[in-house]
Amino acid sequence: MITVDVPADLNFEDDDGFILARIPDTGAPRVGQALVAGGPGGWTWAVVHDVEAGWVRLRPVTAREAASYNPLVAG
Q1: CA–CA separation, 19 vs 15, rounded Å?
Q2: Residue 71 predicted with pLDDT over 80
Q3: Can you count the helices (H) and strands (E) in the chain?
Q4: pTM over 0.85
Q5: Better-predicted residue by pLDDT, 68 or 2
Q6: Is residue 46 within 8 Å of 32, Cβ to Cβ?
Q7: DSSP 48-72
Q8: How far, in Å, CA of 67 to CA of 10, rounded?
Q9: CA–CA separation, 19 vs 37, rounded Å?
């Protein structure tokens, strides 16, 4: 089962193509962290580009690229 780290509408992008999401209730993710973004309708691996003013900007990546940032399975 996939656990979503940052709830996000994957179609809500800024002009640079980054996915925009509110900082989750669990707290702000680290810049450079690979995580799962999305919701019940779909999800993607993403890397946190920046966190500012209550928003997280995410860059969608492949699982292979996400794994190069941090382990993908919680242990």
Answers
A1: 10
A2: yes
A3: 1, 5
A4: yes
A5: 68
A6: no
A7: EEEEETTEEEEEEE-HHHHHHHS-S
A8: 20
A9: 9
pLDDT tens across 15-33, in order?
999 999 999 999 999 999 9
Radius of gyration of the chain (CA): 11
Tokens of 63: 């699982």
Residues with Cβ within 8 Å of residue 47, at least 6 apart in sequence: 32, 33, 34, 35, 58, 59, 61, 65, 66, 69
Mean pLDDT of 48-52: 97
Q: DSSP 3-state helix, strand, coil percentages of the chain (rounded to 5)?
A: 10, 40, 50
The two beta strands, 34-39 and 42-52, are antiparallel
Cα distance between residue 51 and residue 2, in whole Å: 23
